[in-house]
Design brief:
The complex is a heterodimer of chains A (about 290) and B (about 280). Chain A is mostly helical. Chain A is built from 14 helices and no strands. Chain A has 2 domains: about 50 residues; about 230 residues, MetI-like (MetI-like fold). In chain A, helix 4 packs parallel to helix 9, helix 8 runs antiparallel to helix 12 and helix 11 runs antiparallel to helix 14. Classes of the chains: A mainly alpha (about 290), B mainly alpha (about 280).
Chain lengths: ~290, ~280
Protein backbone atom coordinates (compact mmCIF):
# COMPACT_ATOMS: atom_id res chain seq x y z
CA UNK A 1 0.00 0.00 0.00
CA UNK A 2 2.67 2.48 1.01
CA UNK A 3 4.66 1.63 -2.05
CA UNK A 4 1.99 3.25 -4.18
CA UNK A 5 2.32 6.57 -2.41
CA UNK A 6 6.02 6.42 -3.20
CA UNK A 7 5.23 6.10 -6.89
CA UNK A 8 3.67 9.52 -6.88
CA UNK A 9 7.11 10.98 -7.30
CA UNK A 10 7.10 14.72 -7.96
CA UNK A 11 9.20 14.34 -11.11
CA UNK A 12 6.59 12.56 -13.19
CA UNK A 13 3.50 13.81 -11.38
CA UNK A 14 3.62 17.45 -12.33
CA UNK A 15 1.15 19.97 -11.01
CA UNK A 16 -1.13 19.87 -13.98
CA UNK A 17 -2.65 16.73 -12.49
CA UNK A 18 -4.06 18.43 -9.44
CA UNK A 19 -7.26 19.61 -11.10
CA UNK A 20 -8.16 16.19 -12.48
CA UNK A 21 -7.19 14.54 -9.24
CA UNK A 22 -9.58 16.59 -7.15
CA UNK A 23 -12.31 16.19 -9.71
CA UNK A 24 -11.97 12.41 -9.50
CA UNK A 25 -11.77 12.43 -5.71
CA UNK A 26 -14.76 14.75 -5.49
CA UNK A 27 -16.92 12.67 -7.83
CA UNK A 28 -15.98 9.42 -6.08
CA UNK A 29 -16.65 10.80 -2.61
CA UNK A 30 -19.97 12.26 -3.77
CA UNK A 31 -20.99 8.91 -5.26
CA UNK A 32 -20.02 6.98 -2.13
CA UNK A 33 -21.87 9.44 0.09
CA UNK A 34 -24.98 9.40 -2.07
CA UNK A 35 -25.09 5.67 -2.74
CA UNK A 36 -23.68 4.15 0.44
CA UNK A 37 -23.72 6.58 3.35
CA UNK A 38 -27.11 8.17 2.70
CA UNK A 39 -29.08 4.87 2.61
CA UNK A 40 -27.35 3.79 5.81
CA UNK A 41 -28.20 7.09 7.48
CA UNK A 42 -31.78 6.77 6.27
CA UNK A 43 -32.19 3.49 8.18
CA UNK A 44 -31.25 5.01 11.51
CA UNK A 45 -33.01 8.35 11.02
CA UNK A 46 -36.26 6.72 9.91
CA UNK A 47 -36.06 4.28 12.84
CA UNK A 48 -35.67 7.13 15.34
CA UNK A 49 -38.21 9.41 13.67
CA UNK A 50 -41.01 8.89 16.19
CA UNK A 51 -38.79 8.88 19.25
CA UNK A 52 -37.03 6.33 21.44
CA UNK A 53 -40.23 5.04 23.01
CA UNK A 54 -41.72 3.79 19.77
CA UNK A 55 -38.34 2.49 18.65
CA UNK A 56 -37.98 0.37 21.75
CA UNK A 57 -41.58 -0.76 21.54
CA UNK A 58 -41.03 -1.86 17.93
CA UNK A 59 -38.03 -4.04 18.72
CA UNK A 60 -39.49 -5.54 21.89
CA UNK A 61 -42.97 -6.47 20.69
CA UNK A 62 -43.54 -10.25 20.74
CA UNK A 63 -43.41 -10.81 16.96
CA UNK A 64 -40.14 -8.89 16.72
CA UNK A 65 -38.65 -10.88 19.60
CA UNK A 66 -39.74 -14.14 17.93
CA UNK A 67 -38.17 -12.97 14.67
CA UNK A 68 -34.90 -12.08 16.40
CA UNK A 69 -34.83 -15.44 18.19
CA UNK A 70 -35.52 -17.34 14.98
CA UNK A 71 -32.81 -15.42 13.11
CA UNK A 72 -30.29 -16.24 15.85
CA UNK A 73 -31.37 -19.89 15.85
CA UNK A 74 -31.03 -20.25 12.08
CA UNK A 75 -27.59 -18.64 12.10
CA UNK A 76 -26.54 -20.75 15.10
CA UNK A 77 -27.22 -23.91 13.08
CA UNK A 78 -26.15 -22.79 9.60
CA UNK A 79 -22.86 -21.10 10.48
CA UNK A 80 -21.26 -24.01 12.41
CA UNK A 81 -22.33 -26.44 9.68
CA UNK A 82 -20.65 -24.31 7.02
CA UNK A 83 -17.64 -23.86 9.29
CA UNK A 84 -17.08 -27.62 9.46
CA UNK A 85 -17.74 -27.95 5.74
CA UNK A 86 -15.39 -25.07 4.92
CA UNK A 87 -12.50 -26.55 6.89
CA UNK A 88 -13.07 -30.04 5.46
CA UNK A 89 -13.35 -28.73 1.90
CA UNK A 90 -10.25 -26.56 2.24
CA UNK A 91 -8.29 -29.48 3.69
CA UNK A 92 -9.35 -31.82 0.90
CA UNK A 93 -8.71 -29.30 -1.87
CA UNK A 94 -5.42 -27.81 -0.67
CA UNK A 95 -3.72 -30.82 0.93
CA UNK A 96 -4.60 -33.61 -1.45
CA UNK A 97 -4.64 -34.36 -5.15
CA UNK A 98 -7.66 -36.00 -6.71
CA UNK A 99 -9.42 -35.95 -10.06
CA UNK A 100 -12.22 -33.42 -10.45
CA UNK A 101 -10.73 -30.93 -8.02
CA UNK A 102 -11.36 -27.93 -10.28
CA UNK A 103 -14.98 -28.91 -10.74
CA UNK A 104 -15.37 -29.34 -6.99
CA UNK A 105 -13.95 -25.87 -6.31
CA UNK A 106 -16.32 -24.35 -8.87
CA UNK A 107 -19.24 -26.20 -7.26
CA UNK A 108 -18.37 -24.68 -3.87
CA UNK A 109 -18.64 -21.20 -5.44
CA UNK A 110 -21.94 -21.94 -7.14
CA UNK A 111 -24.33 -20.61 -4.45
CA UNK A 112 -22.78 -17.15 -4.85
CA UNK A 113 -23.88 -16.85 -8.44
CA UNK A 114 -27.36 -18.31 -8.09
CA UNK A 115 -30.27 -15.95 -7.50
CA UNK A 116 -31.48 -16.19 -3.88
CA UNK A 117 -34.97 -16.87 -5.18
CA UNK A 118 -33.72 -19.80 -7.28
CA UNK A 119 -31.91 -21.08 -4.17
CA UNK A 120 -35.23 -21.13 -2.35
CA UNK A 121 -37.02 -22.56 -5.36
CA UNK A 122 -34.84 -25.65 -5.59
CA UNK A 123 -35.71 -26.56 -1.99
CA UNK A 124 -39.42 -26.05 -2.62
CA UNK A 125 -39.17 -28.31 -5.67
CA UNK A 126 -37.44 -30.94 -3.54
CA UNK A 127 -39.35 -30.77 -0.25
CA UNK A 128 -42.54 -28.82 -1.06
CA UNK A 129 -46.03 -30.33 -1.03
CA UNK A 130 -45.80 -31.11 -4.77
CA UNK A 131 -42.03 -31.54 -4.65
CA UNK A 132 -39.94 -34.57 -5.40
CA UNK A 133 -39.92 -35.81 -1.80
CA UNK A 134 -43.09 -33.96 -0.78
CA UNK A 135 -45.49 -36.94 -0.67
CA UNK A 136 -43.02 -39.09 1.27
CA UNK A 137 -42.43 -36.30 3.81
CA UNK A 138 -46.16 -35.71 4.21
CA UNK A 139 -46.69 -39.43 4.87
CA UNK A 140 -44.15 -39.31 7.67
CA UNK A 141 -45.40 -36.00 9.06
CA UNK A 142 -42.16 -34.14 8.39
CA UNK A 143 -42.46 -30.46 7.52
CA UNK A 144 -39.48 -28.76 5.89
CA UNK A 145 -40.96 -26.08 3.65
CA UNK A 146 -42.90 -23.38 5.53
CA UNK A 147 -41.05 -24.53 8.65
CA UNK A 148 -37.74 -23.95 10.41
CA UNK A 149 -35.78 -26.78 8.68
CA UNK A 150 -36.47 -25.11 5.32
CA UNK A 151 -35.17 -21.79 6.59
CA UNK A 152 -32.01 -23.48 7.85
CA UNK A 153 -31.45 -25.39 4.60
CA UNK A 154 -31.91 -22.31 2.41
CA UNK A 155 -29.54 -20.33 4.65
CA UNK A 156 -26.97 -23.14 4.62
CA UNK A 157 -27.06 -23.15 0.81
CA UNK A 158 -26.72 -19.37 0.48
CA UNK A 159 -23.81 -19.10 2.96
CA UNK A 160 -22.04 -22.33 2.00
CA UNK A 161 -19.03 -20.78 0.18
CA UNK A 162 -17.95 -18.12 2.72
CA UNK A 163 -15.62 -20.12 5.00
CA UNK A 164 -14.22 -22.38 2.28
CA UNK A 165 -13.47 -19.39 0.05
CA UNK A 166 -11.43 -17.70 2.76
CA UNK A 167 -9.49 -20.83 3.66
CA UNK A 168 -8.66 -22.31 0.24
CA UNK A 169 -6.41 -19.50 -1.10
CA UNK A 170 -4.71 -19.08 2.28
CA UNK A 171 -3.96 -22.78 2.80
CA UNK A 172 -2.77 -23.00 -0.78
CA UNK A 173 -0.19 -20.27 -0.16
CA UNK A 174 0.86 -21.63 3.21
CA UNK A 175 1.67 -25.08 1.83
CA UNK A 176 1.91 -28.19 3.95
CA UNK A 177 5.54 -28.08 5.13
CA UNK A 178 4.68 -27.28 8.75
CA UNK A 179 2.05 -29.99 8.91
CA UNK A 180 4.42 -32.55 7.44
CA UNK A 181 7.05 -31.54 9.99
CA UNK A 182 4.57 -32.06 12.82
CA UNK A 183 3.79 -35.56 11.53
CA UNK A 184 7.47 -36.43 11.20
CA UNK A 185 7.96 -35.31 14.81
CA UNK A 186 5.33 -37.83 15.84
CA UNK A 187 2.11 -35.81 16.11
CA UNK A 188 -1.14 -37.61 15.41
CA UNK A 189 -3.44 -36.32 12.69
CA UNK A 190 -5.69 -34.46 15.13
CA UNK A 191 -2.75 -33.06 17.09
CA UNK A 192 -1.27 -31.73 13.87
CA UNK A 193 -4.61 -30.18 12.95
CA UNK A 194 -5.17 -28.58 16.36
CA UNK A 195 -1.64 -27.36 16.96
CA UNK A 196 -0.43 -26.47 13.47
CA UNK A 197 -3.25 -26.03 10.98
CA UNK A 198 -5.80 -24.31 13.21
CA UNK A 199 -3.45 -21.61 14.58
CA UNK A 200 -2.28 -20.90 11.04
CA UNK A 201 -5.75 -20.34 9.67
CA UNK A 202 -7.55 -18.88 12.71
CA UNK A 203 -7.90 -15.31 11.42
CA UNK A 204 -9.08 -16.35 8.00
CA UNK A 205 -11.49 -18.69 9.76
CA UNK A 206 -12.84 -15.86 11.91
CA UNK A 207 -13.11 -13.67 8.84
CA UNK A 208 -15.07 -16.29 6.92
CA UNK A 209 -17.37 -17.04 9.87
CA UNK A 210 -18.05 -13.33 10.29
CA UNK A 211 -19.13 -12.86 6.68
CA UNK A 212 -21.06 -16.13 6.76
CA UNK A 213 -22.92 -15.02 9.87
CA UNK A 214 -23.78 -11.58 8.49
CA UNK A 215 -25.25 -13.14 5.39
CA UNK A 216 -27.04 -15.88 7.35
CA UNK A 217 -28.82 -13.32 9.54
CA UNK A 218 -29.62 -10.98 6.69
CA UNK A 219 -30.68 -13.38 3.95
CA UNK A 220 -34.04 -12.46 2.49
CA UNK A 221 -34.82 -13.90 -0.95
CA UNK A 222 -34.10 -17.58 -0.39
CA UNK A 223 -35.63 -17.58 3.08
CA UNK A 224 -38.69 -15.72 1.84
CA UNK A 225 -39.45 -18.45 -0.69
CA UNK A 226 -39.33 -21.32 1.81
CA UNK A 227 -40.79 -19.53 4.82
CA UNK A 228 -44.49 -19.14 4.10
CA UNK A 229 -44.36 -15.99 6.27
CA UNK A 230 -46.07 -17.42 9.31
CA UNK A 231 -45.86 -14.70 11.94
CA UNK A 232 -44.14 -15.71 15.13
CA UNK A 233 -43.26 -19.11 13.62
CA UNK A 234 -41.26 -18.81 10.40
CA UNK A 235 -40.50 -15.10 10.23
CA UNK A 236 -36.86 -14.16 10.46
CA UNK A 237 -35.86 -10.52 10.97
CA UNK A 238 -35.63 -9.61 7.26
CA UNK A 239 -39.06 -11.18 6.64
CA UNK A 240 -40.49 -9.38 9.65
CA UNK A 241 -39.20 -6.11 8.18
CA UNK A 242 -41.04 -6.86 4.95
CA UNK A 243 -44.33 -7.55 6.73
CA UNK A 244 -44.13 -4.38 8.83
CA UNK A 245 -43.19 -2.34 5.79
CA UNK A 246 -46.09 -3.67 3.75
CA UNK A 247 -48.42 -2.82 6.66
CA UNK A 248 -47.12 0.77 6.49
CA UNK A 249 -45.55 0.41 9.95
CA UNK A 250 -42.42 2.26 8.80
CA UNK A 251 -41.03 2.99 12.25
CA UNK A 252 -41.32 -0.68 13.15
CA UNK A 253 -39.74 -1.81 9.89
CA UNK A 254 -36.83 0.61 10.18
CA UNK A 255 -36.38 -0.16 13.89
CA UNK A 256 -35.84 -3.87 13.16
CA UNK A 257 -33.79 -2.90 10.08
CA UNK A 258 -31.56 -0.72 12.25
CA UNK A 259 -30.58 -3.81 14.28
CA UNK A 260 -29.49 -5.59 11.09
CA UNK A 261 -27.72 -2.45 9.87
CA UNK A 262 -25.87 -2.33 13.16
CA UNK A 263 -24.85 -5.96 12.70
CA UNK A 264 -23.57 -5.03 9.23
CA UNK A 265 -21.54 -2.14 10.63
CA UNK A 266 -20.05 -4.27 13.42
CA UNK A 267 -19.22 -6.96 10.84
CA UNK A 268 -17.47 -4.41 8.64
CA UNK A 269 -15.58 -2.93 11.59
CA UNK A 270 -14.31 -6.30 12.83
CA UNK A 271 -13.51 -7.30 9.24
CA UNK A 272 -11.46 -4.12 8.77
CA UNK A 273 -9.69 -4.72 12.06
CA UNK A 274 -8.77 -8.29 11.14
CA UNK A 275 -7.59 -7.14 7.70
CA UNK A 276 -5.52 -4.36 9.21
CA UNK A 277 -4.03 -6.32 12.12
CA UNK A 278 -3.68 -9.79 10.60
CA UNK A 279 -3.78 -9.00 6.89
CA UNK A 280 -0.70 -11.11 6.20
CA UNK A 281 -2.39 -14.11 7.83
CA UNK A 282 -5.42 -13.86 5.58
CA UNK A 283 -3.67 -14.51 2.28
CA UNK A 284 -5.86 -12.00 0.51
CA UNK A 285 -5.78 -10.63 -2.96
CA UNK A 286 -8.88 -11.33 -4.96
CA UNK A 287 -12.34 -9.86 -4.56
CA UNK A 288 -14.37 -10.89 -1.57
CA UNK A 289 -18.07 -11.24 -1.21
CA UNK B 1 13.38 -30.90 -2.99
CA UNK B 2 13.30 -33.72 -5.47
CA UNK B 3 10.99 -35.88 -3.42
CA UNK B 4 8.76 -38.42 -5.13
CA UNK B 5 5.21 -37.25 -5.89
CA UNK B 6 3.76 -39.73 -3.37
CA UNK B 7 4.79 -37.20 -0.72
CA UNK B 8 1.41 -35.43 -0.99
CA UNK B 9 -0.38 -38.49 0.37
CA UNK B 10 1.52 -38.31 3.64
CA UNK B 11 -1.02 -35.93 5.14
CA UNK B 12 -3.92 -37.67 6.84
CA UNK B 13 -7.63 -36.95 6.68
CA UNK B 14 -8.12 -37.34 2.95
CA UNK B 15 -11.03 -39.74 3.20
CA UNK B 16 -12.71 -37.86 6.03
CA UNK B 17 -12.40 -34.36 4.57
CA UNK B 18 -13.35 -35.36 1.04
CA UNK B 19 -16.18 -37.48 2.42
CA UNK B 20 -17.62 -34.55 4.37
CA UNK B 21 -17.15 -32.22 1.40
CA UNK B 22 -18.82 -34.49 -1.15
CA UNK B 23 -21.59 -35.63 1.17
CA UNK B 24 -22.42 -32.06 2.17
CA UNK B 25 -22.29 -30.68 -1.37
CA UNK B 26 -24.36 -33.60 -2.56
CA UNK B 27 -27.10 -33.04 -0.01
CA UNK B 28 -27.14 -29.25 0.09
CA UNK B 29 -26.35 -28.34 -3.51
CA UNK B 30 -26.64 -31.25 -5.93
CA UNK B 31 -29.80 -32.94 -4.66
CA UNK B 32 -31.95 -29.76 -4.73
CA UNK B 33 -30.49 -28.79 -8.11
CA UNK B 34 -31.41 -32.24 -9.36
CA UNK B 35 -34.99 -31.59 -8.23
CA UNK B 36 -35.07 -28.49 -10.42
CA UNK B 37 -33.54 -30.29 -13.39
CA UNK B 38 -35.94 -33.23 -13.00
CA UNK B 39 -38.93 -30.92 -12.83
CA UNK B 40 -37.71 -29.07 -15.92
CA UNK B 41 -36.95 -32.32 -17.78
CA UNK B 42 -40.57 -33.35 -17.31
CA UNK B 43 -41.71 -30.42 -19.43
CA UNK B 44 -42.25 -30.83 -23.14
CA UNK B 45 -41.15 -28.26 -25.69
CA UNK B 46 -44.74 -27.09 -25.89
CA UNK B 47 -44.89 -26.61 -22.12
CA UNK B 48 -41.70 -24.58 -22.21
CA UNK B 49 -43.06 -22.36 -24.90
CA UNK B 50 -46.35 -21.89 -23.05
CA UNK B 51 -44.61 -21.10 -19.77
CA UNK B 52 -41.95 -18.76 -21.05
CA UNK B 53 -43.55 -17.01 -23.99
CA UNK B 54 -46.19 -15.08 -22.04
CA UNK B 55 -45.65 -11.34 -22.49
CA UNK B 56 -45.43 -10.85 -18.74
CA UNK B 57 -42.60 -13.38 -18.34
CA UNK B 58 -40.71 -11.98 -21.33
CA UNK B 59 -41.09 -8.47 -19.98
CA UNK B 60 -39.78 -9.57 -16.56
CA UNK B 61 -36.71 -11.13 -18.23
CA UNK B 62 -36.17 -7.91 -20.16
CA UNK B 63 -36.30 -5.87 -16.95
CA UNK B 64 -34.01 -8.24 -14.99
CA UNK B 65 -31.38 -8.74 -17.68
CA UNK B 66 -31.59 -5.29 -19.25
CA UNK B 67 -31.41 -3.31 -16.03
CA UNK B 68 -28.66 -5.61 -14.69
CA UNK B 69 -26.64 -4.93 -17.83
CA UNK B 70 -27.02 -1.15 -17.49
CA UNK B 71 -26.26 -1.33 -13.75
CA UNK B 72 -23.17 -3.44 -14.49
CA UNK B 73 -21.91 -0.92 -17.05
CA UNK B 74 -22.47 2.01 -14.68
CA UNK B 75 -20.73 0.08 -11.90
CA UNK B 76 -17.80 -0.72 -14.20
CA UNK B 77 -17.24 2.98 -14.96
CA UNK B 78 -17.89 4.35 -11.47
CA UNK B 79 -16.15 1.38 -9.83
CA UNK B 80 -13.03 1.94 -11.92
CA UNK B 81 -12.99 5.59 -10.89
CA UNK B 82 -13.56 4.85 -7.20
CA UNK B 83 -10.95 2.07 -7.15
CA UNK B 84 -8.47 4.36 -8.85
CA UNK B 85 -9.12 7.19 -6.38
CA UNK B 86 -8.91 4.88 -3.35
CA UNK B 87 -5.64 3.28 -4.49
CA UNK B 88 -3.86 6.23 -6.06
CA UNK B 89 -4.80 9.27 -4.03
CA UNK B 90 -4.48 10.21 -0.39
CA UNK B 91 -7.19 12.40 1.11
CA UNK B 92 -8.90 12.73 4.48
CA UNK B 93 -11.53 10.07 5.13
CA UNK B 94 -10.11 7.70 2.52
CA UNK B 95 -9.82 4.70 4.83
CA UNK B 96 -13.34 5.13 6.13
CA UNK B 97 -14.77 5.33 2.62
CA UNK B 98 -12.68 2.35 1.59
CA UNK B 99 -14.22 0.35 4.43
CA UNK B 100 -17.71 1.48 3.48
CA UNK B 101 -17.36 0.09 -0.04
CA UNK B 102 -18.20 -3.32 1.45
CA UNK B 103 -21.46 -2.05 2.92
CA UNK B 104 -23.69 -3.53 0.18
CA UNK B 105 -22.10 -6.94 0.87
CA UNK B 106 -22.85 -6.71 4.58
CA UNK B 107 -26.18 -4.87 4.62
CA UNK B 108 -29.12 -7.28 4.29
CA UNK B 109 -30.94 -6.73 1.02
CA UNK B 110 -34.30 -6.08 2.69
CA UNK B 111 -32.71 -3.29 4.73
CA UNK B 112 -31.12 -1.82 1.61
CA UNK B 113 -34.46 -2.04 -0.16
CA UNK B 114 -36.47 -0.08 2.39
CA UNK B 115 -33.63 2.44 2.89
CA UNK B 116 -33.38 3.17 -0.84
CA UNK B 117 -37.15 3.47 -1.02
CA UNK B 118 -37.12 5.97 1.88
CA UNK B 119 -34.67 8.05 -0.15
CA UNK B 120 -36.24 7.85 -3.58
CA UNK B 121 -39.98 7.57 -2.90
CA UNK B 122 -41.95 10.58 -4.22
CA UNK B 123 -42.09 12.04 -0.69
CA UNK B 124 -38.66 10.66 0.28
CA UNK B 125 -35.42 12.40 1.24
CA UNK B 126 -34.31 12.87 -2.37
CA UNK B 127 -37.51 11.95 -4.17
CA UNK B 128 -39.31 15.10 -3.06
CA UNK B 129 -36.79 17.19 -4.99
CA UNK B 130 -36.67 14.89 -8.02
CA UNK B 131 -40.41 14.37 -8.41
CA UNK B 132 -41.25 18.01 -9.36
CA UNK B 133 -38.70 17.72 -12.16
CA UNK B 134 -40.47 14.68 -13.53
CA UNK B 135 -37.77 12.26 -12.37
CA UNK B 136 -39.42 9.20 -10.92
CA UNK B 137 -37.05 6.67 -9.37
CA UNK B 138 -38.94 4.60 -6.79
CA UNK B 139 -41.87 2.54 -8.11
CA UNK B 140 -40.46 2.86 -11.64
CA UNK B 141 -37.78 1.08 -13.72
CA UNK B 142 -35.15 3.54 -12.50
CA UNK B 143 -35.72 2.21 -9.00
CA UNK B 144 -34.74 -1.28 -10.17
CA UNK B 145 -31.58 0.25 -11.61
CA UNK B 146 -30.68 2.11 -8.41
CA UNK B 147 -31.06 -1.05 -6.30
CA UNK B 148 -28.98 -3.08 -8.77
CA UNK B 149 -26.22 -0.46 -8.78
CA UNK B 150 -26.19 -0.56 -4.99
CA UNK B 151 -25.85 -4.35 -4.65
CA UNK B 152 -23.31 -4.73 -7.46
CA UNK B 153 -21.08 -1.78 -6.65
CA UNK B 154 -18.47 -3.44 -4.39
CA UNK B 155 -17.65 -6.18 -6.90
CA UNK B 156 -15.91 -3.92 -9.42
CA UNK B 157 -14.02 -1.91 -6.80
CA UNK B 158 -12.87 -4.93 -4.81
CA UNK B 159 -11.81 -6.83 -7.93
CA UNK B 160 -9.81 -3.91 -9.31
CA UNK B 161 -8.13 -2.73 -6.11
CA UNK B 162 -5.48 -5.45 -5.69
CA UNK B 163 -4.55 -5.25 -9.37
CA UNK B 164 -4.28 -1.46 -9.27
CA UNK B 165 -2.13 -1.73 -6.16
CA UNK B 166 0.28 -4.00 -7.97
CA UNK B 167 0.34 -1.70 -10.99
CA UNK B 168 3.82 -0.39 -11.54
CA UNK B 169 3.88 3.35 -11.91
CA UNK B 170 6.99 2.86 -14.03
CA UNK B 171 4.92 1.67 -16.97
CA UNK B 172 2.96 4.89 -16.93
CA UNK B 173 6.09 6.90 -16.45
CA UNK B 174 7.70 5.17 -19.39
CA UNK B 175 4.69 5.92 -21.58
CA UNK B 176 4.71 9.55 -20.52
CA UNK B 177 8.43 9.96 -20.95
CA UNK B 178 8.02 8.56 -24.47
CA UNK B 179 5.68 11.45 -25.14
CA UNK B 180 2.24 9.95 -24.59
CA UNK B 181 -0.45 12.30 -23.40
CA UNK B 182 -2.39 11.45 -20.27
CA UNK B 183 -5.34 10.27 -22.31
CA UNK B 184 -3.11 8.07 -24.48
CA UNK B 185 -1.42 6.61 -21.41
CA UNK B 186 -4.77 5.77 -19.89
CA UNK B 187 -6.38 4.45 -23.07
CA UNK B 188 -3.42 2.52 -24.46
CA UNK B 189 -1.47 1.41 -21.41
CA UNK B 190 -3.58 1.35 -18.29
CA UNK B 191 -6.99 0.36 -19.62
CA UNK B 192 -5.84 -2.62 -21.75
CA UNK B 193 -3.86 -3.84 -18.78
CA UNK B 194 -6.85 -3.57 -16.47
CA UNK B 195 -9.37 -4.91 -18.97
CA UNK B 196 -9.56 -8.58 -17.89
CA UNK B 197 -9.96 -7.56 -14.25
CA UNK B 198 -12.51 -4.89 -15.10
CA UNK B 199 -14.51 -7.45 -17.08
CA UNK B 200 -14.36 -9.88 -14.15
CA UNK B 201 -15.75 -7.22 -11.83
CA UNK B 202 -18.41 -6.31 -14.36
CA UNK B 203 -19.46 -9.95 -14.75
CA UNK B 204 -19.64 -10.43 -10.97
CA UNK B 205 -21.78 -7.29 -10.58
CA UNK B 206 -23.95 -8.41 -13.50
CA UNK B 207 -24.50 -11.89 -12.02
CA UNK B 208 -25.47 -10.38 -8.69
CA UNK B 209 -27.86 -7.86 -10.24
CA UNK B 210 -29.62 -10.41 -12.47
CA UNK B 211 -30.56 -12.54 -9.51
CA UNK B 212 -31.21 -9.69 -7.07
CA UNK B 213 -34.55 -9.84 -5.31
CA UNK B 214 -34.65 -8.36 -1.79
CA UNK B 215 -33.54 -4.81 -2.44
CA UNK B 216 -35.36 -4.51 -5.77
CA UNK B 217 -38.88 -5.55 -4.77
CA UNK B 218 -39.27 -2.74 -2.24
CA UNK B 219 -38.22 0.09 -4.52
CA UNK B 220 -39.49 -1.25 -7.85
CA UNK B 221 -43.21 -0.98 -7.22
CA UNK B 222 -43.40 -4.29 -9.15
CA UNK B 223 -45.73 -3.08 -11.89
CA UNK B 224 -46.29 -5.87 -14.43
CA UNK B 225 -44.66 -5.09 -17.80
CA UNK B 226 -42.86 -2.07 -16.28
CA UNK B 227 -40.79 -2.81 -13.21
CA UNK B 228 -41.47 -6.47 -12.45
CA UNK B 229 -38.33 -8.64 -12.21
CA UNK B 230 -37.98 -12.34 -13.07
CA UNK B 231 -37.21 -13.56 -9.51
CA UNK B 232 -40.46 -11.96 -8.33
CA UNK B 233 -42.39 -13.92 -10.95
CA UNK B 234 -40.87 -17.14 -9.56
CA UNK B 235 -42.13 -16.18 -6.11
CA UNK B 236 -45.60 -15.39 -7.46
CA UNK B 237 -45.82 -18.66 -9.41
CA UNK B 238 -44.81 -20.57 -6.27
CA UNK B 239 -47.50 -18.77 -4.29
CA UNK B 240 -50.00 -20.00 -6.89
CA UNK B 241 -48.50 -23.50 -6.55
CA UNK B 242 -47.55 -23.30 -10.22
CA UNK B 243 -44.35 -25.30 -9.73
CA UNK B 244 -43.83 -25.91 -13.45
CA UNK B 245 -43.98 -22.19 -14.24
CA UNK B 246 -41.61 -21.36 -11.41
CA UNK B 247 -39.21 -24.12 -12.46
CA UNK B 248 -39.15 -22.94 -16.08
CA UNK B 249 -38.16 -19.38 -15.11
CA UNK B 250 -35.75 -20.80 -12.53
CA UNK B 251 -34.00 -22.92 -15.16
CA UNK B 252 -33.49 -19.88 -17.40
CA UNK B 253 -32.02 -17.91 -14.48
CA UNK B 254 -29.85 -20.84 -13.40
CA UNK B 255 -28.54 -21.25 -16.95
CA UNK B 256 -27.62 -17.57 -16.99
CA UNK B 257 -25.85 -18.06 -13.63
CA UNK B 258 -23.88 -21.02 -14.96
CA UNK B 259 -22.90 -19.14 -18.10
CA UNK B 260 -21.71 -16.17 -16.03
CA UNK B 261 -19.89 -18.38 -13.53
CA UNK B 262 -18.09 -20.05 -16.41
CA UNK B 263 -17.23 -16.68 -17.97
CA UNK B 264 -15.98 -15.31 -14.64
CA UNK B 265 -13.72 -18.32 -14.11
CA UNK B 266 -12.30 -17.93 -17.60
CA UNK B 267 -11.82 -14.19 -17.08
CA UNK B 268 -10.03 -14.77 -13.79
CA UNK B 269 -7.66 -17.23 -15.39
CA UNK B 270 -7.05 -14.73 -18.18
CA UNK B 271 -6.41 -11.82 -15.81
CA UNK B 272 -4.05 -13.89 -13.66
CA UNK B 273 -2.03 -14.84 -16.73
CA UNK B 274 -2.25 -11.31 -18.02
CA UNK B 275 -1.06 -9.56 -14.87
CA UNK B 276 1.62 -12.17 -14.27
CA UNK B 277 3.44 -11.10 -17.41
Amino acid sequence: MNAIAAHASPVVRPRRRTGLRWLLIGTSVAFLLLFLVLPLAAVFVEAARKGAGLYLAAITEPDAIEAIKLTLLVAAIAVPLNLVFGVAAAWAVTRHEFPGKTALTALIDLPFSVSPVVSGLIYVLLFGAQGLLGPWLAEHGIRIIFAVPGLVLATVFITLPFVARELIPLMQTQGSDEEEAALVLGASGWQMFRKVTLPNIRWALLYGVLLCNARAMGEFGAVSVVSGHIRGLTNTMPLHIEILYNEYDYVGAFAVASLLALLALVTLAVKRFVEWRYGDELGHGAARH
Amino acid sequence: MALPPTRKRVLPGFGLSLGITLGYLGLVVLLPLAALVLRAAGLSAGDWWALLSSPRVLSAFRVSFGMALIAGLINAVVGLMVAWVLVRYRFPGRRLLDGLVDLPFALPTAVAGIALTALYAPNGWLGQYLEPHGIKIAFAPLGVLVAMIFVGFPFVVRTLQPVLESFEGEIEEAAESLGATRLQTFGRVILPWLLPTLLTGFALALARAIGEYGSVIFIAGNLPFVSEIAPLLIVMKLEEYNYAGAAAIGVVMLTASFALLFTINALQRWSRRWSAT
